[in-house]
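User: what does the whole thing look like in 3D?
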Amino acid sequence: MKLFWFETFKTFSRWRTYISFTVIALIVIITEVVMKLSAGEIIYRMLRPFQKDFLISGNILNAWFVTAFIMNSLHIHIPFLITLVAGDIVSSEATSGTIRFLLIRPPSRSRIITAKYLTALFYTAGLVTFFALVCVSLGLPLFGSGDLITHHYGKFDISFIPESEIPLRILLAFIAAIWSMTVVTSIAFLFSTIAENSIGPIIGTMAVVIVFLVLGNLPLDFFRSLKPYLFTTHMMNLWQQFLNLPIPWEEIVRSAIILGLHNACLFLIAFLIFRRKDIKS
Amino acid sequence: MKKIGLLFLLLILLPPRIQAQEDAFHYLDAIEKKYTGLKDYTAEVRVHFDIETFKAPDMQARLFYKAPDKLKVESKRVFFFPKEGGYFNPSLFKKEDFEIKFMEHSIESSRKVVKLKLTPKKAKRNIQEFVLAIDPELNLIREMDVTQLDGREIKAVIDYGKFDGFELPTHIQLRIDIPSFETEGVREFDQLIQKPKRVTGTIEMTYSNYKVNSGLSDEFFKETGSSPGKERR
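Assistant: Here's the predicted 3D structure for the full assembly of 514 residues, as structure tokens:
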């Protein structure tokens, strides 16, 4: 535990750790301000399939909608920001030459790698929580509250979630988002254990995420059959399921288990590599 | 001789058709006259959706109508209200606006029913045609089929109650059958040659607490204010 707090202190005392938080705050602020200014266009685009058939009133563009909208970009910018720290957490010791000092001290390699992994997970949870807080705390005064409408763009397909249910669902969605993002953390952490510099793990992790996302979205039967086995599918689905009517608990549990297994396997590999790491040469 | 025969045939066939056309006008006239005194009304409306791809709880709103075509909906929450057939507008079917064809007399649920086909003379709101089932004894529109130019089909079945001397809807059931065109998102390779999927389902609207001729002003329908819970038409 002491090691974990030591690693956490070390991570959060680096200025680069706060790049992610600053970027998140900027993205959310810019997105919400632009959404506020172009509310009419957003509502028109969003409700185009329904406007021929319905008169629509009420606060549709509310804080919950905006939060869900921004959360949809999780799969691109949050993984990148996670890799900045998770991809650096072990490899930076090699880069700065401190790995030998670290490994000749009394704590075992197992405890060190576990503490570093827990720190990377803590950072991930902190980043997503910060993201949630900025989205909601800025969104509520800017857009107000209301029922959440989720829909598929361009399709006659819509779900209404009553305002009273939303805070709990959003909370669960963010917890699920943290769980999803831990897989990105685990990939970056594994690469960080292998690499001797920080750039490799960051680029490598992003390459994996992008390749899997692309494969999962190609409209061909082969890739479609592959989709359920890609971690990116579960990574995106997990949190979105909390905004479905009704909540598909079975799918959520399945996705959570699959992502958990990914984490366990990736950490195990990182753990074994780190234990056998040669620091003499 | 042939010409005389043809003329004779025309003379035999023409009068009943003219007669039928006059009858068709008569039914719409009777409805228009029945509601001449209806200047405005306000009602609570509860909407229930039963459409597979439209997962929504029941919605409630207050609806304001002023003749001939002003409509305003107020709701504290998000509210979707069907544009075609969702509310009662006695001024909708002015005989001068339509080509009217008499279709048939029939008995439905032990009531006499007259069916008329109305085709707008000027293109208006994407409407291709209306088919009205009119109760000729009570001068009420019992059913309304709306066919739109883009393939949308809507059928309204209307039940009435009496409020301040006017028969106004207490319940409207809309059966919708609309093409679902996917306008955005990732397209499948074969999507362009596929026919659009159709969305079908019913929307039930229950009206209550009518207030008739309370003197709603035109300005009231112009007010949009800052409240996002208001929608005008």
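In plain terms: Residues 49 and 156 of chain A are 6 Å apart (CA to CA). The beta strands of chain A are 54-57, 148-151, 158-161.
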